[in-house]
Amino acid sequence: MKEPIKNKKIWLGFLVIFIMLNPWYFPSGGEPVLIYGVPLWAIVIIIMSIVLSLYITYVIHYHWDTLDEEENGEEK
Amino acid sequence: MEMDLAFSGMSGILIMLFYGLIMLGIGVITYMKNKKVHSSLDEYYLGGRGLGTMVLFFTFFATQYSGNTVVGYSAEAYRVGYANLVTIPFFIMIILVYLSFAPRMYKLGKKHNIVTPVDWLEMKFKSKAVSILAAIIMLYALANFLLEQLVAIGQGVSGLTGGTVPYQAGVIFFIIIMIAYGWLGGMRSVAYTDTMQGIALLVGVFMLLIGTIIYFGGVPAAGDYMRTYSPENLGVPEGGGLVRWSNFLILVGIGAAVYPNAIQRIFSAKNERALKRSFTQMAWMPFLTAGVVFFIGIMAYTAYPNLSVEQSEQLVGIMASTLANQNIIFYIAMVLLFGGIIAAIVSTADSVLLTFSSIISKDIYGRYINPEASDTKKIHVGKIIGVIVVAFLLLIAWNPPGTLYQIFVLKLEILIQVAPAIILGLYWERSHAKSVFTGMLVGALVAASFTFLGLTPLGIFSGIWGLMINVAIYVGGSFIFGRVPAEKTETSTVEGSPEFTRT
């Protein structure tokens, strides 16, 4: 039986991603750097959002398995 | 501002009728296929705990994304620019918060026949005070959420048809349809209509994106334009903006995950696999919804540079009308979009109403007023009270109170105060019912009073202040007064499944 909540390492990962999801680490002011019209910091945030979705997908797939009643027999 | 709307006149009315009849049809078919739906709470409120991946996904989708996501968020992006990009990650955060409790909540729900989140709290804390307070908070938040949807239906219908369908007529029409299909098939009807509504919205938004890129210029053009005329909308959120950003991630992430109607969908899953798959898909939806909508708002910059706040609220309507006038393909696509936006509001409203009724049926009427009643009777009472509440909310929607307006805006700030009991209660055996109650009560009061007084010390949202105080009382009190029953701890270590050990 695997529950995401019990795995501390998973939450460490989420914490790191959460910290990076807040745009505190960009230099303030100055001319915005645009890439195809999108500010660089926004691109980084979008990439971090994708990382979060990827990580959620990974955790659901590999770290959540508590077995359903209909499939189990020796659920422990 | 006067706009020549493509859907004014007969075509607007026909579109509304068409969508309404499809929804009603789904309700009737669902009822024909499941005539026993009114025999038990499980059947009516949880679709017999049998929703498969696709339907489950769409019902989560429709519950989370409302018409406001399209109409309001694009206008917001237009006004504040890239600071509003936070809407993408905050929708993903909701799924992250689900991961902290849904796996166990699902198992417990199946094992103990839990129907509502209050059921779970009652089982865990065995405290009338906790259950009733949580039920009141949830009903209050749900009612406000419902009110917001009712207003949105009316505005949506009258706005999108250029006023041909008056506000009141639009609301009444869709409410009758919504109540009719909800009554006929319960959760199944709601989930099946959610599927149709979700598909219409996704297709419509996607076509709006394509049209925007073709006819209004793409993102690069918008970026250049903003750099010249409003560079502040391109900048990184700093100081207060940064605090707001992180507060949004937390408030929406936790608040939207503990919406009672969202939690009920966890119980409705057919099996764990369906639940896992729906969550995985949901983790990617923010890019297709909030993300697309955000960029539509940004791209509107070049085509409509100087809209006032009021005008910008109609941004989607204006853009869609312009696109619909281009050619027949976009006309059809915008029909889908308009219908999809209305459908998305209706589909959010229907799930809120159903959950509202379920808390009345199970937690208020069924637990305290008439515990001997049959399930059919409980469902009946839940339905009737639901309709009465809708009628009451309609009165408010049409005569918005000027002074007490904020009472009807409070939602997430208050609702988030039940999160510690629901989530922490799952894992922490030491949880002490009286401390849980006190934390929830004080948290809710703090959140409400800060909101009314407009207090946001340090720039932190009132709901987050309430939550911090709430958790402090919960945790502190439980450390001092809480007990871990000795024999039960043993069972938990032996069996390795702590859900058997409820205090």
UniProtKB/TrEMBL annotation, chain A:
Tree of life domain: Bacteria
Entry's transmembrane regions: 9-26, 38-60
The entry's keywords: Membrane, Transmembrane, Transmembrane helix
Record's protein name: DUF3311 domain-containing protein
From TrEMBL, chain B:
UniProt-annotated location(s): Cell membrane
Keywords: Cell membrane, Ion transport, Membrane, Sodium, Sodium transport, Symport, Transmembrane, Transmembrane helix, Transport
Any single Pfam family the record assigns to this protein: SSF
Membrane topology note: Multi-pass membrane protein
Catalytic activity: L-proline(in) + Na(+)(in) = L-proline(out) + Na(+)(out)
Transmembrane region(s): 12-32, 44-62, 82-101, 129-147, 167-186, 198-222, 242-262, 283-304, 328-360, 381-398, 404-428, 435-454, 460-481
Gene3D superfamilies, per the entry: Sodium/glucose cotransporter
Taxonomy, superkingdom: Bacteria
Family: Belongs to the sodium:solute symporter (SSF) (TC 2.A.21) family.
Protein name per Swiss-Prot or TrEMBL: SSS family transporter
Species name: Salinicoccus halitifaciens
